[in-house]
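Researcher: I'd like a structural prediction for the single chain below. Treat it as a standalone chain; there are no partners to consider.
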Amino acid sequence: MCKLCVEKGLPNCECAFNKEGLFQKDNWNCVTINVLRDIAEEFNLIKYGCDISLAVLDTPSVRINEEDSEPDGWCILSWYKQKGAISNAIFMSDEIEKPMTLDQANAIINLYKNKKQIN
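Model: Treating it as a single chain, here is the predicted structure.
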């Protein structure tokens, strides 16, 4: 469970990140994911089609350990209508496509907080 879900302690929350910090499709009202959706809405990054919403968020490089890091890329979120679950959260770069990690989600939140302060 992510730090924000633990801190908020919402009764109907199913965190979108497993113990290893990887996105899991079985989620509901995850606080970290909801922050990402709020960012996508605030920065006008959501595309709507029929009943599906899609957001593409810039993702800065994320350090995994002293030797390795994830490259810059994008995290793509999709969800049905305005429901509390995210159907997909993937990270993509020109060479990688994999589930988004909690570290990437936190890096995105920090990136957009800084962008907001600049504007």
